[in-house]
Design brief:
By secondary structure, this protein is of the alpha+beta class. It has four domains: 67 residues, ibrinogen binding protein from staphylococcus aureus domain (ibrinogen binding protein from staphylococcus aureus fold); 103 residues, no CATH class; 161 residues; 109 residues, no CATH class. Helices cover 39% and strands 19% of the residues.
Protein backbone atom coordinates (compact mmCIF):
# COMPACT_ATOMS: atom_id res chain seq x y z
CA UNK A 1 0.00 0.00 0.00
CA UNK A 2 1.16 3.54 -0.70
CA UNK A 3 0.02 6.82 0.75
CA UNK A 4 -2.12 8.60 -1.81
CA UNK A 5 -3.52 11.61 0.01
CA UNK A 6 -4.05 13.17 3.43
CA UNK A 7 -6.62 15.86 4.16
CA UNK A 8 -8.85 17.16 6.91
CA UNK A 9 -12.60 17.58 6.92
CA UNK A 10 -12.67 21.37 6.71
CA UNK A 11 -11.52 22.61 10.12
CA UNK A 12 -12.96 19.67 12.01
CA UNK A 13 -10.77 17.28 13.99
CA UNK A 14 -11.10 14.54 11.37
CA UNK A 15 -8.13 13.34 9.32
CA UNK A 16 -8.64 11.25 6.20
CA UNK A 17 -5.75 9.16 4.86
CA UNK A 18 -6.22 7.62 1.41
CA UNK A 19 -4.20 4.48 0.65
CA UNK A 20 -3.69 2.66 -2.64
CA UNK A 21 -2.26 -0.76 -3.44
CA UNK A 22 -2.81 -3.99 -5.36
CA UNK A 23 -4.72 -7.13 -4.51
CA UNK A 24 -3.60 -10.72 -5.25
CA UNK A 25 -4.44 -10.39 -8.97
CA UNK A 26 -2.75 -6.97 -9.27
CA UNK A 27 -5.98 -5.01 -9.46
CA UNK A 28 -5.85 -1.55 -7.88
CA UNK A 29 -7.12 -1.64 -4.32
CA UNK A 30 -8.13 1.54 -2.46
CA UNK A 31 -8.73 1.89 1.25
CA UNK A 32 -9.26 4.90 3.47
CA UNK A 33 -8.30 5.47 7.09
CA UNK A 34 -10.42 8.04 8.94
CA UNK A 35 -9.11 9.35 12.28
CA UNK A 36 -11.68 11.13 14.44
CA UNK A 37 -9.83 13.18 17.07
CA UNK A 38 -12.68 13.88 19.44
CA UNK A 39 -11.37 13.20 22.94
CA UNK A 40 -13.07 10.29 24.64
CA UNK A 41 -15.27 9.85 21.55
CA UNK A 42 -12.26 9.49 19.23
CA UNK A 43 -12.03 6.59 16.81
CA UNK A 44 -10.02 5.16 13.90
CA UNK A 45 -12.03 3.70 11.01
CA UNK A 46 -10.80 1.69 8.04
CA UNK A 47 -13.18 1.70 5.06
CA UNK A 48 -13.10 0.39 1.48
CA UNK A 49 -13.62 2.26 -1.81
CA UNK A 50 -17.40 1.80 -1.47
CA UNK A 51 -17.41 3.71 1.83
CA UNK A 52 -18.13 0.52 3.79
CA UNK A 53 -16.45 0.19 7.19
CA UNK A 54 -14.03 -2.76 7.23
CA UNK A 55 -13.29 -2.34 10.92
CA UNK A 56 -12.76 0.36 13.53
CA UNK A 57 -10.92 0.83 16.78
CA UNK A 58 -14.13 1.26 18.78
CA UNK A 59 -17.42 -0.36 17.79
CA UNK A 60 -20.21 2.12 18.52
CA UNK A 61 -23.81 1.07 17.82
CA UNK A 62 -26.42 3.82 17.60
CA UNK A 63 -29.92 2.46 16.74
CA UNK A 64 -31.47 5.93 16.91
CA UNK A 65 -29.05 7.45 14.38
CA UNK A 66 -27.43 4.90 12.09
CA UNK A 67 -25.23 7.61 10.52
CA UNK A 68 -23.42 7.93 13.84
CA UNK A 69 -22.89 4.17 14.21
CA UNK A 70 -19.37 2.81 13.88
CA UNK A 71 -19.71 -0.91 13.09
CA UNK A 72 -18.10 -3.22 10.49
CA UNK A 73 -20.05 -3.75 7.23
CA UNK A 74 -22.00 -0.50 7.63
CA UNK A 75 -21.81 2.69 5.56
CA UNK A 76 -19.50 5.35 7.01
CA UNK A 77 -20.84 8.90 7.37
CA UNK A 78 -18.72 11.86 8.42
CA UNK A 79 -20.04 13.51 11.61
CA UNK A 80 -22.54 16.21 10.80
CA UNK A 81 -21.13 19.70 11.23
CA UNK A 82 -23.37 21.84 13.41
CA UNK A 83 -21.30 25.01 13.08
CA UNK A 84 -20.35 27.34 10.26
CA UNK A 85 -17.10 26.84 8.37
CA UNK A 86 -14.62 29.71 8.36
CA UNK A 87 -13.34 28.42 5.02
CA UNK A 88 -16.55 29.72 3.47
CA UNK A 89 -16.28 33.20 5.01
CA UNK A 90 -14.80 35.74 2.60
CA UNK A 91 -15.17 39.07 4.39
CA UNK A 92 -15.53 40.65 7.80
CA UNK A 93 -19.21 41.51 7.39
CA UNK A 94 -20.14 37.90 6.66
CA UNK A 95 -18.03 36.82 9.63
CA UNK A 96 -19.99 39.16 11.92
CA UNK A 97 -23.37 38.31 10.36
CA UNK A 98 -23.36 34.74 11.66
CA UNK A 99 -22.36 35.74 15.18
CA UNK A 100 -25.34 36.20 17.52
CA UNK A 101 -24.29 39.70 18.47
CA UNK A 102 -26.56 41.73 20.71
CA UNK A 103 -26.54 45.26 22.07
CA UNK A 104 -25.18 43.96 25.38
CA UNK A 105 -22.39 41.92 23.74
CA UNK A 106 -18.88 42.91 24.83
CA UNK A 107 -15.41 41.89 23.73
CA UNK A 108 -15.19 39.52 26.71
CA UNK A 109 -18.09 37.51 25.22
CA UNK A 110 -16.30 36.82 21.92
CA UNK A 111 -14.38 33.62 22.86
CA UNK A 112 -17.62 31.84 23.68
CA UNK A 113 -19.61 33.31 20.74
CA UNK A 114 -16.99 32.58 18.09
CA UNK A 115 -16.28 29.07 19.37
CA UNK A 116 -19.99 28.20 19.40
CA UNK A 117 -20.55 29.63 15.93
CA UNK A 118 -17.54 28.54 13.88
CA UNK A 119 -16.06 25.10 13.51
CA UNK A 120 -12.47 24.38 14.57
CA UNK A 121 -11.97 27.51 16.71
CA UNK A 122 -11.66 27.00 20.45
CA UNK A 123 -12.51 29.47 23.21
CA UNK A 124 -8.93 29.13 24.51
CA UNK A 125 -7.49 30.34 21.19
CA UNK A 126 -9.61 33.50 21.07
CA UNK A 127 -9.15 34.18 24.78
CA UNK A 128 -5.37 33.78 24.53
CA UNK A 129 -5.28 36.16 21.57
CA UNK A 130 -7.31 38.77 23.46
CA UNK A 131 -5.12 38.40 26.55
CA UNK A 132 -1.82 38.60 24.69
CA UNK A 133 -2.73 41.77 22.78
CA UNK A 134 -4.73 43.27 25.69
CA UNK A 135 -7.90 43.55 23.62
CA UNK A 136 -10.49 42.62 26.23
CA UNK A 137 -11.42 46.24 26.87
CA UNK A 138 -11.25 47.63 23.32
CA UNK A 139 -14.44 48.38 21.36
CA UNK A 140 -16.27 45.31 20.05
CA UNK A 141 -15.93 46.28 16.38
CA UNK A 142 -12.17 46.76 16.67
CA UNK A 143 -11.73 43.42 18.44
CA UNK A 144 -13.83 41.59 15.80
CA UNK A 145 -11.77 43.08 12.99
CA UNK A 146 -8.48 42.04 14.58
CA UNK A 147 -9.73 38.54 15.43
CA UNK A 148 -11.07 37.98 11.91
CA UNK A 149 -7.80 39.12 10.36
CA UNK A 150 -5.87 36.87 12.74
CA UNK A 151 -8.01 33.80 11.94
CA UNK A 152 -7.81 34.38 8.19
CA UNK A 153 -4.02 34.71 8.28
CA UNK A 154 -3.73 31.66 10.53
CA UNK A 155 -6.04 29.39 8.52
CA UNK A 156 -4.88 30.26 5.04
CA UNK A 157 -1.26 30.56 6.18
CA UNK A 158 -1.38 26.95 7.32
CA UNK A 159 -3.16 25.98 4.12
CA UNK A 160 -0.39 27.47 1.95
CA UNK A 161 2.42 26.59 4.38
CA UNK A 162 3.42 30.27 4.39
CA UNK A 163 3.50 30.64 8.17
CA UNK A 164 4.80 33.87 9.62
CA UNK A 165 3.68 33.09 13.16
CA UNK A 166 5.46 32.19 16.36
CA UNK A 167 4.25 30.05 19.29
CA UNK A 168 3.44 31.85 22.54
CA UNK A 169 2.69 30.26 25.91
CA UNK A 170 -0.89 30.83 27.04
CA UNK A 171 -0.51 33.25 29.96
CA UNK A 172 -3.63 31.89 31.64
CA UNK A 173 -2.77 28.22 32.16
CA UNK A 174 0.97 28.29 31.34
CA UNK A 175 0.56 24.97 29.48
CA UNK A 176 -0.99 25.54 26.04
CA UNK A 177 0.43 27.49 23.13
CA UNK A 178 -1.19 29.62 20.47
CA UNK A 179 0.20 31.30 17.37
CA UNK A 180 0.64 35.04 16.89
CA UNK A 181 1.98 37.01 13.91
CA UNK A 182 5.76 37.43 13.96
CA UNK A 183 7.62 40.70 13.51
CA UNK A 184 9.59 39.24 10.62
CA UNK A 185 8.86 37.15 7.53
CA UNK A 186 10.76 34.07 8.69
CA UNK A 187 8.48 31.05 8.78
CA UNK A 188 8.73 28.11 11.13
CA UNK A 189 7.80 24.43 10.84
CA UNK A 190 4.46 23.76 12.46
CA UNK A 191 5.12 20.01 12.35
CA UNK A 192 8.43 20.36 14.15
CA UNK A 193 6.83 22.63 16.71
CA UNK A 194 4.02 20.13 17.35
CA UNK A 195 6.58 17.35 17.75
CA UNK A 196 8.52 19.42 20.26
CA UNK A 197 5.35 20.42 22.08
CA UNK A 198 4.13 16.87 22.60
CA UNK A 199 7.59 15.55 23.39
CA UNK A 200 7.90 18.16 26.12
CA UNK A 201 4.38 17.38 27.32
CA UNK A 202 5.14 13.65 27.49
CA UNK A 203 8.40 14.33 29.33
CA UNK A 204 6.58 16.53 31.84
CA UNK A 205 3.90 13.89 32.37
CA UNK A 206 6.55 11.20 32.92
CA UNK A 207 8.35 13.48 35.35
CA UNK A 208 5.16 14.25 37.32
CA UNK A 209 4.10 10.60 37.46
CA UNK A 210 7.54 9.49 38.61
CA UNK A 211 7.80 12.27 41.18
CA UNK A 212 4.30 11.52 42.51
CA UNK A 213 5.16 7.81 42.86
CA UNK A 214 8.29 8.61 44.86
CA UNK A 215 6.43 11.26 46.86
CA UNK A 216 3.68 8.77 47.72
CA UNK A 217 6.31 6.36 49.01
CA UNK A 218 8.00 9.03 51.11
CA UNK A 219 4.75 10.43 52.53
CA UNK A 220 3.67 6.91 53.46
CA UNK A 221 6.91 6.47 55.40
CA UNK A 222 6.49 9.94 56.92
CA UNK A 223 3.01 9.03 58.13
CA UNK A 224 4.38 5.80 59.65
CA UNK A 225 6.96 7.71 61.69
CA UNK A 226 4.46 10.36 62.70
CA UNK A 227 2.23 7.64 64.14
CA UNK A 228 5.25 6.16 65.88
CA UNK A 229 5.99 9.55 67.42
CA UNK A 230 2.39 9.84 68.65
CA UNK A 231 2.69 6.41 70.27
CA UNK A 232 6.00 7.38 71.90
CA UNK A 233 4.54 10.64 73.22
CA UNK A 234 1.66 8.70 74.75
CA UNK A 235 4.14 6.43 76.54
CA UNK A 236 6.03 9.46 77.80
CA UNK A 237 2.79 10.91 79.09
CA UNK A 238 2.15 7.69 81.02
CA UNK A 239 5.61 8.02 82.56
CA UNK A 240 4.71 11.41 84.00
CA UNK A 241 2.90 9.64 86.90
CA UNK A 242 5.72 7.23 87.82
CA UNK A 243 6.89 9.34 90.81
CA UNK A 244 3.33 9.22 92.10
CA UNK A 245 3.38 5.40 92.01
CA UNK A 246 6.65 5.37 93.97
CA UNK A 247 5.10 7.68 96.56
CA UNK A 248 2.06 5.39 96.92
CA UNK A 249 4.33 2.41 97.47
CA UNK A 250 6.43 4.18 100.10
CA UNK A 251 3.43 5.50 102.03
CA UNK A 252 1.72 2.09 102.02
CA UNK A 253 4.91 0.35 103.19
CA UNK A 254 5.49 2.89 105.97
CA UNK A 255 1.90 2.52 107.26
CA UNK A 256 1.35 -1.23 106.95
CA UNK A 257 1.43 -1.65 110.75
CA UNK A 258 -1.89 0.17 111.20
CA UNK A 259 -3.64 -0.53 107.89
CA UNK A 260 -6.40 -3.16 108.24
CA UNK A 261 -5.41 -6.50 106.75
CA UNK A 262 -8.66 -6.99 104.90
CA UNK A 263 -8.89 -5.77 101.29
CA UNK A 264 -9.75 -2.13 100.59
CA UNK A 265 -10.47 -0.12 97.42
CA UNK A 266 -8.72 3.00 98.80
CA UNK A 267 -7.08 4.37 101.89
CA UNK A 268 -6.32 7.83 103.23
CA UNK A 269 -2.81 8.35 104.64
CA UNK A 270 -0.59 11.20 105.79
CA UNK A 271 1.97 12.30 103.19
CA UNK A 272 5.13 13.02 105.18
CA UNK A 273 6.65 14.66 102.06
CA UNK A 274 4.03 17.45 102.26
CA UNK A 275 3.71 18.24 105.98
CA UNK A 276 1.52 15.18 106.65
CA UNK A 277 -1.13 16.38 104.23
CA UNK A 278 -3.75 13.67 103.73
CA UNK A 279 -3.62 11.79 100.44
CA UNK A 280 -6.04 9.18 99.03
CA UNK A 281 -4.31 6.10 97.58
CA UNK A 282 -6.36 3.84 95.23
CA UNK A 283 -6.08 0.11 96.02
CA UNK A 284 -7.00 -3.06 94.18
CA UNK A 285 -9.45 -4.98 96.39
CA UNK A 286 -8.16 -8.29 95.05
CA UNK A 287 -4.82 -7.74 96.82
CA UNK A 288 -3.69 -6.92 100.33
CA UNK A 289 -2.21 -3.47 101.15
CA UNK A 290 1.25 -5.06 101.15
CA UNK A 291 0.72 -6.53 97.67
CA UNK A 292 -0.66 -3.19 96.46
CA UNK A 293 2.55 -1.50 97.65
CA UNK A 294 4.67 -4.03 95.77
CA UNK A 295 2.56 -3.53 92.62
CA UNK A 296 3.07 0.25 92.81
CA UNK A 297 6.84 -0.19 93.17
CA UNK A 298 6.85 -2.59 90.21
CA UNK A 299 4.86 -0.16 88.09
CA UNK A 300 7.27 2.64 89.04
CA UNK A 301 10.35 0.61 88.02
CA UNK A 302 8.67 -0.43 84.77
CA UNK A 303 7.84 3.15 83.84
CA UNK A 304 11.30 4.36 84.88
CA UNK A 305 12.94 1.83 82.57
CA UNK A 306 10.42 2.66 79.83
CA UNK A 307 11.22 6.38 80.17
CA UNK A 308 14.89 5.76 79.42
CA UNK A 309 14.14 3.56 76.41
CA UNK A 310 11.29 5.68 75.00
CA UNK A 311 13.31 8.90 75.36
CA UNK A 312 16.00 7.39 73.14
CA UNK A 313 13.32 6.16 70.72
CA UNK A 314 11.84 9.65 70.53
CA UNK A 315 15.22 11.20 69.74
CA UNK A 316 15.84 8.64 66.98
CA UNK A 317 12.31 9.06 65.59
CA UNK A 318 12.66 12.86 65.53
CA UNK A 319 15.91 12.48 63.59
CA UNK A 320 14.22 10.17 61.08
CA UNK A 321 11.29 12.56 60.71
CA UNK A 322 13.64 15.47 60.16
CA UNK A 323 15.44 13.51 57.44
CA UNK A 324 12.20 12.40 55.73
CA UNK A 325 10.88 15.98 55.73
CA UNK A 326 14.11 17.13 54.09
CA UNK A 327 13.53 14.52 51.35
CA UNK A 328 9.97 15.83 50.84
CA UNK A 329 11.33 19.36 50.39
CA UNK A 330 13.94 18.20 47.88
CA UNK A 331 11.35 16.25 45.90
CA UNK A 332 9.05 19.26 45.70
CA UNK A 333 11.97 21.31 44.36
CA UNK A 334 12.81 18.80 41.59
CA UNK A 335 12.50 20.01 37.99
CA UNK A 336 13.34 16.90 35.97
CA UNK A 337 13.45 13.10 36.03
CA UNK A 338 17.21 13.06 36.77
CA UNK A 339 16.69 14.99 40.01
CA UNK A 340 13.94 12.58 41.09
CA UNK A 341 16.14 9.61 40.17
CA UNK A 342 18.94 10.93 42.37
CA UNK A 343 16.55 11.18 45.30
CA UNK A 344 15.20 7.70 44.61
CA UNK A 345 18.73 6.29 44.65
CA UNK A 346 19.32 8.02 47.98
CA UNK A 347 16.23 6.59 49.68
CA UNK A 348 16.66 3.14 48.10
CA UNK A 349 19.85 2.77 50.14
CA UNK A 350 18.12 3.80 53.37
CA UNK A 351 16.63 1.05 55.51
CA UNK A 352 13.63 3.13 56.65
CA UNK A 353 12.22 3.05 53.09
CA UNK A 354 12.93 -0.60 52.28
CA UNK A 355 9.41 -1.88 52.91
CA UNK A 356 8.07 0.60 50.32
CA UNK A 357 10.80 0.40 47.66
CA UNK A 358 9.57 -2.90 46.20
CA UNK A 359 6.16 -1.42 45.41
CA UNK A 360 7.69 1.51 43.58
CA UNK A 361 10.05 -0.64 41.53
CA UNK A 362 7.04 -2.27 39.87
CA UNK A 363 5.87 1.17 38.68
CA UNK A 364 9.21 2.35 37.31
CA UNK A 365 9.58 2.34 33.55
CA UNK A 366 13.23 3.31 33.44
CA UNK A 367 16.25 1.66 34.98
CA UNK A 368 18.24 4.13 37.01
CA UNK A 369 22.00 3.64 36.97
CA UNK A 370 23.54 3.93 40.39
CA UNK A 371 26.38 6.37 40.75
CA UNK A 372 28.56 7.48 43.60
CA UNK A 373 29.90 10.96 44.15
CA UNK A 374 33.68 10.85 44.46
CA UNK A 375 36.52 13.24 43.79
CA UNK A 376 37.28 11.49 40.50
CA UNK A 377 33.72 11.25 39.20
CA UNK A 378 32.09 14.55 38.37
CA UNK A 379 29.50 13.16 35.93
CA UNK A 380 26.88 12.82 38.67
CA UNK A 381 27.91 15.98 40.51
CA UNK A 382 25.83 18.79 39.07
CA UNK A 383 25.19 21.54 41.61
CA UNK A 384 23.37 24.74 40.71
CA UNK A 385 26.00 27.35 39.86
CA UNK A 386 25.83 31.11 40.40
CA UNK A 387 28.39 33.78 39.61
CA UNK A 388 28.39 36.73 42.00
CA UNK A 389 30.87 39.35 40.80
CA UNK A 390 34.03 37.25 40.46
CA UNK A 391 33.01 34.57 43.00
CA UNK A 392 31.41 31.17 42.30
CA UNK A 393 28.53 30.02 44.50
CA UNK A 394 27.27 26.41 44.39
CA UNK A 395 23.95 24.97 45.61
CA UNK A 396 23.36 21.24 46.21
CA UNK A 397 20.30 19.68 44.56
CA UNK A 398 19.72 16.87 47.07
CA UNK A 399 21.03 15.45 50.34
CA UNK A 400 23.70 13.26 48.77
CA UNK A 401 24.96 16.15 46.68
CA UNK A 402 24.85 18.43 49.74
CA UNK A 403 27.13 16.01 51.60
CA UNK A 404 29.56 15.74 48.71
CA UNK A 405 29.57 19.49 48.09
CA UNK A 406 30.23 20.39 51.73
CA UNK A 407 32.36 17.54 53.02
CA UNK A 408 34.44 16.53 49.98
CA UNK A 409 34.36 19.15 47.25
CA UNK A 410 34.66 22.39 49.26
CA UNK A 411 37.92 23.52 50.82
CA UNK A 412 38.10 24.13 54.56
CA UNK A 413 38.43 27.87 53.99
CA UNK A 414 35.37 28.18 51.73
CA UNK A 415 32.14 29.60 53.20
CA UNK A 416 29.20 27.31 53.95
CA UNK A 417 25.57 28.54 54.00
CA UNK A 418 22.33 26.99 55.23
CA UNK A 419 18.96 28.22 56.46
CA UNK A 420 18.76 28.15 60.25
CA UNK A 421 16.56 25.24 61.52
CA UNK A 422 14.81 25.09 58.11
CA UNK A 423 15.09 22.35 55.50
CA UNK A 424 17.04 23.50 52.46
CA UNK A 425 20.10 23.07 50.30
CA UNK A 426 23.72 23.54 51.32
CA UNK A 427 25.47 26.49 49.70
CA UNK A 428 29.22 26.86 49.19
CA UNK A 429 30.96 30.10 48.27
CA UNK A 430 34.26 29.13 46.63
CA UNK A 431 36.98 31.54 47.65
CA UNK A 432 39.69 30.05 45.41
CA UNK A 433 42.46 32.03 47.13
CA UNK A 434 40.40 35.21 46.93
CA UNK A 435 39.88 37.43 50.01
CA UNK A 436 36.80 37.09 52.20
CA UNK A 437 34.03 38.87 50.26
CA UNK A 438 32.19 41.91 51.55
CA UNK A 439 28.78 41.72 53.20
CA UNK A 440 26.93 42.46 49.95
CA UNK A 441 28.19 39.25 48.32
CA UNK A 442 27.56 37.23 51.49
CA UNK A 443 24.01 38.63 51.63
CA UNK A 444 23.37 37.60 48.01
CA UNK A 445 24.56 34.06 48.83
CA UNK A 446 22.22 33.99 51.83
CA UNK A 447 19.31 35.12 49.64
CA UNK A 448 20.02 32.33 47.15
CA UNK A 449 20.15 29.74 49.95
CA UNK A 450 16.89 31.10 51.38
CA UNK A 451 15.23 30.69 47.98
CA UNK A 452 16.44 27.07 47.79
CA UNK A 453 14.80 26.21 51.09
CA UNK A 454 11.40 25.42 52.49
CA UNK A 455 11.09 29.08 53.54
CA UNK A 456 11.44 30.55 50.05
CA UNK A 457 7.99 32.16 50.27
CA UNK A 458 8.81 33.93 53.55
CA UNK A 459 9.97 37.52 53.72
CA UNK A 460 12.56 37.25 56.52
CA UNK A 461 14.61 34.04 56.58
CA UNK A 462 17.50 33.33 58.99
CA UNK A 463 20.58 31.97 57.18
CA UNK A 464 23.66 30.68 59.02
CA UNK A 465 27.12 30.80 57.45
CA UNK A 466 30.60 29.79 58.57
CA UNK A 467 33.84 28.39 57.22
CA UNK A 468 33.58 24.81 55.94
CA UNK A 469 36.11 23.62 58.56
CA UNK A 470 33.48 24.23 61.25
CA UNK A 471 30.94 21.92 59.57
CA UNK A 472 30.98 18.29 60.75
CA UNK A 473 28.90 15.20 60.07
CA UNK A 474 27.86 13.17 63.14
CA UNK A 475 28.61 9.46 63.05
CA UNK A 476 25.76 7.54 61.45
CA UNK A 477 23.91 10.70 60.42
CA UNK A 478 21.64 10.61 57.38
CA UNK A 479 22.71 12.27 54.10
CA UNK A 480 22.57 16.06 54.29
CA UNK A 481 22.58 16.14 58.12
CA UNK A 482 25.48 18.11 59.62
CA UNK A 483 26.36 20.08 62.74
CA UNK A 484 28.30 23.32 62.76
CA UNK A 485 29.77 25.96 65.05
CA UNK A 486 31.25 29.48 64.88
CA UNK A 487 28.40 30.55 62.62
CA UNK A 488 27.00 33.99 61.97
CA UNK A 489 23.35 34.59 61.10
CA UNK A 490 21.81 36.89 58.50
CA UNK A 491 18.09 37.61 58.11
CA UNK A 492 17.31 38.03 54.42
CA UNK A 493 14.50 38.05 51.92
CA UNK A 494 14.81 35.08 49.52
CA UNK A 495 16.06 35.82 46.02
CA UNK A 496 13.17 36.07 43.57
CA UNK A 497 13.11 33.43 40.82
Amino acid sequence: MRLKNIYTQELDRIITIELEGFDEVDDILEKTLVIELMGKHGNIILKDDNNIIIDCLRHIPNPENTEQSRLPNTVYHYPNATKKSLLEINDLETFKKYLPLEVSTTTKDLPNLISNTYNGISQATIQAYLNYFSLENVPLSEALEKIYSYLQDLIFGIDTLQLTFEPIVNSKNKKDYFLIPKNNDLSFSLNFFIDDFYEEKETNESFKNYRNSVLKLILSTLQKYQKRLEHINQKLKDCENMEQYQLYGELLTANLYHIPSYNLDKIELENYYENNKLIVIPLDKKYSPSSNAKRYFKKYRKLKNALEIVSIQKQETMQELNYIESIVYELEACNNIKDVSDIYEEISENVIFQDKITLLKKQKNKKINKSKLTKNKFSSFNPIKFTIENYTFLIGRNNVENDYLTLKYAKKTDLWFHTKDIHGSHGILLLENKPIPDINIITQCAQIVAFHSKAKLSSNVPVDYCEVKYVKKPNGAKPGIVIYTNQKTLYVEPLKS
